[in-house]
């Protein structure tokens, strides 16, 4: 019997095997389906906390779901569907116990454009496509792309979004007729044009809603879940204030209808009751007389195809981090969960969803322990959709707009503006430009403008490394020392060439030392230009030395031009003892 | 009489005045119209040299002008017009005495797409628009943008352009019928499909042209302008080899016609004689039955709108630098000259032009002294256009394609591939990707792909600064030292946060020192994340110190969060004497 030689499998095969083994391990399964980790460890003692948190979140999710569907221009039930399906999916796939997902003001505002100009089908397709993109980015580990959106850009974008949403709600707030407008500028224009159609009851109720929300917030201050009964009640009412003001609004509408024998307020009206029906997302739609194929719909989405998923990821990951309390956030898993919530949600006519800051904060304050809190929220939503839609008929639009406008106050970040004013006017300018483009051309163009401007400025800075040449006089001769920075890339090559040539313009009898002590990286273009500089200075009969270049970079230069090898010198005493240095070389 | 107080004009007014004074000075005028500098200093002794250089350049400009018009798919006279008008303009505005402008192979290849798919009018409009963009970039000092095109990208692009041009000429080279193809892949496909239609005389003449060019080049080796008569003649013939082979080709064609009583070779045919008529560039055109408005034409240009001017600037500035012999090149002035050459040229039906490497090298070798050499060239071109067009009728297309193909050999840079293979495989990959996209999708997409990939990789590198944490044990306690790099921008913020958190994951009883000694710049996003890290580590009861941050950066951090002020410490002995350091803080 011949013994087969023990051949090592190729490294490539090994790697594939390792990846496969890693992908199929129990640990990975638990990471990708976090419910397998926390559910078996669930203790009965957690339940009351999860239950109460679920109630407070649910009592906010219902009015916010309706409100953000209204912001998007959709029938209100789409907001409730979105909260419902995403709530169920996140229980299984979510890795952060206190994060709550659902429709948010910003995503709703970004969807509104498609709905008002085309049809509601676009909102559902946007959810589906965004979900696919987010899932894909999660699987391909492309989450790092959001790191290229700086805080000034996010802040300018968020503030503009808040202003745009608030402006779009002013119409319902004062009971005007006419369209609400796609952009901030358009909304303000419509407001001015239709100002004469302002009603009486609407602004009163809207303002009363805002004031009530402020008072109810005050009511809960200093109260905790663990306090005595009275304080507990105050705490609970305060946290459920969104539901409270809507109930008050509905009651007012109902009483007015009975006493005046007609309804003076504009109501939200019929809401499609029952649970969402599951079917394929709309891959084609009809707007007016025109049929839009899938390709046409994607064309309409345009830049939204990339921007909406990015914004969803920023919101969700930022929230997860903010409430992680120092723990590391598995951004990949959050993106997978978010992607699946949107994809599966779109099969149940859901609008785009992401992490909600308000509801996550509420969940956290209510002392949630596991994602099971989400189940209570889901049950509340099911009750609302199956039994309460006829009651929701009486929700006055003015109450909703009051609710939305007051939520927008907290989205505007004044502090960052002050801090940037004091520390970095350039970054403040980026914030303002981002915000202005958002307000004047639309949210997605604003954020793209911000990202591109910031990246261009960064590239420009990388292309202009600061070189401070030192001129050292010594008895053995003069030295011009040009210390290079850590990293020189192709775009800085010409700048360095220009600087060295300029610094040595009127010199003679001087040794020019290009100091590569700190230099760690240099690409081919940069190295070629450096070689060119040396040769040009040689032509002018100036002596050039390349000091302390590491071996890889020296080899690169020598490979570009053999004749440059003799220029490389090593030593440390050039600045301290120029004479000794000059003698040594 | 009251004396008016001597009020300082506002700094803004001062600045405007200064700029105005600077703009209107004689020095600026001379810089912007360089002929005012060199013409008054012209010495009669310069004339013979300028004259001879003009002759050699002109003898190449004529065949190359015709050849590159053919590459662009234009009637041959457009190439001659382009050489003529740009030659005149450059005498006035050019700042580099030896640079020669005119049609080039690459610009011709980039124009070909518009001409073959639409009409010749597009080539003239492209020249006009490119001229405007180049002039605008010159005035706005945006020339630095070409610094973002690295050598691997340029090399991949140039090589692909050479292959594409050579492939498009293979058809004429072997006398095939059928179209020559928009892209490399298409040209090769057409060649294979139509291979059976190959003729006899064409490939022989084409090959003979290439061999003649090689031999004529050899003939001039070792000969200089200043040598004896025989060597001088050899030198002159060698430099005029492009004209020589075309004359040989014409003679062959003429003799064949007379001896065979029909013409077996495909000839260039009728050339529109006379000087160009000056009129507005075509702002609308008719292709087939369809009228293209200016807007439609701009739409057709698409990315060419930016890419063509960029390529023109790269070619021109690179050539100016290569032949400046160490002198600084006024890139702004070169761009202004180039822009004007294209704009004014387009009024005389000229195709797009830029600096020509071949003819500039020829000019240099011929010992040109001032831009006046260009005048001789222009006179030769005028003679050609007014008296020789009937002779040019006999230029065989095979001779032209042989001329073009042999010019392409020198455009392919093998050496850079070897050097990148040895030193930087990543940059070689960029070269290959650029080249492949050029060959498969078109030249402009290839160069854009290269620029974008390179910029994305650069941004990615900037977002991942190398942080090497040092763990130092000492009797007073352990230290984890994380030295920050010189520059931390928003996109690196998250990476640094992650690194610090990861390094300190399983530590306890350790002082974490975030070492900002080398740190020079940090933006708001990076500072905010750093503050966040410190607060997160605080929550884990790890002691954190921020070492040697400069005052501006310290103030920024403290402004973000007051409580962080106590974390800042200063000292230099942390690595050398950790005990002393720990005692001191």
TrEMBL record, chains A, B:
<dbReference type="InterPro" id="IPR001902">
    <property type="entry name" value="SLC26A/SulP_fam"/>
</dbReference>
<feature type="transmembrane region" description="Helical">
    <location>
        <begin position="236"/>
        <end position="256"/>
    </location>
</feature>
<keyword id="KW-0472">Membrane</keyword>
<dbReference type="GO" id="GO:0016020">
    <property type="term" value="C:membrane"/>
</dbReference>
<dbReference type="Pfam" id="PF00916">
    <property type="entry name" value="Sulfate_transp"/>
</dbReference>
<dbReference type="InterPro" id="IPR011547">
    <property type="entry name" value="SLC26A/SulP_dom"/>
</dbReference>
<keyword id="KW-1133">Transmembrane helix</keyword>
<feature type="transmembrane region" description="Helical">
    <location>
        <begin position="200"/>
        <end position="216"/>
    </location>
</feature>
<feature type="transmembrane region" description="Helical">
    <location>
        <begin position="51"/>
        <end position="75"/>
    </location>
</feature>
<dbReference type="InterPro" id="IPR036513">
    <property type="entry name" value="STAS_dom_sf"/>
</dbReference>
<feature type="domain" description="STAS">
    <location>
        <begin position="469"/>
        <end position="548"/>
    </location>
</feature>
<feature type="transmembrane region" description="Helical">
    <location>
        <begin position="400"/>
        <end position="417"/>
    </location>
</feature>
<feature type="transmembrane region" description="Helical">
    <location>
        <begin position="300"/>
        <end position="323"/>
    </location>
</feature>
<feature type="transmembrane region" description="Helical">
    <location>
        <begin position="87"/>
        <end position="110"/>
    </location>
</feature>
<feature type="transmembrane region" description="Helical">
    <location>
        <begin position="429"/>
        <end position="459"/>
    </location>
</feature>
<dbReference type="InterPro" id="IPR002645">
    <property type="entry name" value="STAS_dom"/>
</dbReference>
<feature type="transmembrane region" description="Helical">
    <location>
        <begin position="374"/>
        <end position="395"/>
    </location>
</feature>
<dbReference type="Pfam" id="PF01740">
    <property type="entry name" value="STAS"/>
</dbReference>
<feature type="transmembrane region" description="Helical">
    <location>
        <begin position="122"/>
        <end position="146"/>
    </location>
</feature>
<keyword id="KW-0812">Transmembrane</keyword>
<protein>
    <recommendedName>
        <fullName>STAS domain-containing protein</fullName>
    </recommendedName>
</protein>
<dbReference type="GO" id="GO:0055085">
    <property type="term" value="P:transmembrane transport"/>
</dbReference>
């Amino acid at each position: 019997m011949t013994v087969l030689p023990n051949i090592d499998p190729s490294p490539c095969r090994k790697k594939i095997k390792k990846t496969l083994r890693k992908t199929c391990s129990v640990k990975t399964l638990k990471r990708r389906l976090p419910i397998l980790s926390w559910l078996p460890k669930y203790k009965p003692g957690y339940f009351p906390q999860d239950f109460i948190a679920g109630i407070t979140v649910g009592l906010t999710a219902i009015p916010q779901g309706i409100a953000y569907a209204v912001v998007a221009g959709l029938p209100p039930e789409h907001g409730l569907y979105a909260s419902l399906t995403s709530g169920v999916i996140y229980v299984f796939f979510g890795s952060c116990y206190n994060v709550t997902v659902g429709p948010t003001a910003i995503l709703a505002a970004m969807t509104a454009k498609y709905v008002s100009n085309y049809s509601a089908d676009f909102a559902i397709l946007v959810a589906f496509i965004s979900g696919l993109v987010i899932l894909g980015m999660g699987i391909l580990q492309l989450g790092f792309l959001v790191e290229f959106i700086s805080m000034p850009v996010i802040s300018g974008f968020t503030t503009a979004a808040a202003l745009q949403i608030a402006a779009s709600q002013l119409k319902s707030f004062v009971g005007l007729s006419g369209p609400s407008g796609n952009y901030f500028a358009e909304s303000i224009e419509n407001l001015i044009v239709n100002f004469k159609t302002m009603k009486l009851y609407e602004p009163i109720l809207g303002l009363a809603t805002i004031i009530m929300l402020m008072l109810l917030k005050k009511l809960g201050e200093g109260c905790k879940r663990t306090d005595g009964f009275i304080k507990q009640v105050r705490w609970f009412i305060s946290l459920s204030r969104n539901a409270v003001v809507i109930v008050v609004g509905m009651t007012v509408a109902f009483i007015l209808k009975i006493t005046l024998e007609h309804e003076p307020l504009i109501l939200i009206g019929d809401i499609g009751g029952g649970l969402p029906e599951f079917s394929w997302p709309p891959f084609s739609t009809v707007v007016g007389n025109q049929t839009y194929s899938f390709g046409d719909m994607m064309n309409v989405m345009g830049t939204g195809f990339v921007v909406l998923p990015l914004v969803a990821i920023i919101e969700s990951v930022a929230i997860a981090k903010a409430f992680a309390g120092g723990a590391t956030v598995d951004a990949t898993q959050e993106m997978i969960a978010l992607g699946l919530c949107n994809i599966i949600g779109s099969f149940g006519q859901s609008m785009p969803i992401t992490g909600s800051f308000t509801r996550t904060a509420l969940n956290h304050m209510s002392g949630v322990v596991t994602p099971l809190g989400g189940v209570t929220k889901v049950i509340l939503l099911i009750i609302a959709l199956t039994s309460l839609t006829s009651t929701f008929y009486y929700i006055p639009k003015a109450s909703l707009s009051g609710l939305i406008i007051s939520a927008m106050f907290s989205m505007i970040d004044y502090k960052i503006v002050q801090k940037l004013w004091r520390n970095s006017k350039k970054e403040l300018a980026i914030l303002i430009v981002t915000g202005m483009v958002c307000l004047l051309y639309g949210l997605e163009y604003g954020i793209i403008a911000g990202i591109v401007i910031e990246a261009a400025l960064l590239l420009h800075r990388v292309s202009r490394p600061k070189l401070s040449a030192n001129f050292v006089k010594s008895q053995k001769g003069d030295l011009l020392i040009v210390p290079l920075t850590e990293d020189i890339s192709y775009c800085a090559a010409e700048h360095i060439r220009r600087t060295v040539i300029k610094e040595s313009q009127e010199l003679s009898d001087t040794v020019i030392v290009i100091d590569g002590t700190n230099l760690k990286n240099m690409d081919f273009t940069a190295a070629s230009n450096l070689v060119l500089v040396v040769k040009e200075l040689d032509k002018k009969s100036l002596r050039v030395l390349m000091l302390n270049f590491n071996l890889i970079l020296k080899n690169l230069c020598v490979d570009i031009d053999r004749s440059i090898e003799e220029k490389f010198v090593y030593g440390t005493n050039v600045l301290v003892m120029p004479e000794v240095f000059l003698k040594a070389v």
